[in-house]
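chain below, 186 aa
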Amino acid sequence: MEEKAKILDKDAISRALTRIAHEIVEKNKGTENLCLVGIRSRGVYLAQRLSFCIKNIEGKNVPTGALDITLYRDDLALASGLPIVRKTEIDFDINDKNLVLVDDVLYTGRTIRAALDALIDFGRPKSIQLAVLVDRGHRELPVRADYAGKNIPTSKDEAVEVRLQETEGIDEVVIMKNNDKTQNPK
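prediction:
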């Protein structure tokens, strides 16, 4: 894989998250009964950033949690080796809340399906909305984002990499191109 294009830099990511935060506040008519849950791992950092943006807008803290979906994945049986299960941290009641699920990239929709299954084990939110930094298309399930930082049309032989300060030491989104013709014959 080689880098094909940089789609978002640090400033563009910041602007996208600020815009999404404003949209979340507007759609939910403020922060009452609002909570954010990020999907591990980058979704957690994005949820924390959104929470910070919302606090700057409304002056109120929004409960923010982390969700591990490893054991809910539909491809778990296909994985070789033991899965790495990380901690889910939702230390607030999600019942009757407007919950915003946060992830970095929306692709097939399978990660979101797994997250919905996992969330239901914690309660019954009033609503579940989806916020993603990047929507790249190619859905396999009927899932759509309520809030998207950027829609990026991609081909199946491309990958979208979200790199965050917290994980890679830099904020950027890049498209990676698979140049190995043996892996993707025409």
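The chain is about 25% helix and 30% strand. The domain at 11-154 is CATH 3.40.50.2020 (Rossmann fold).
thats it, cya
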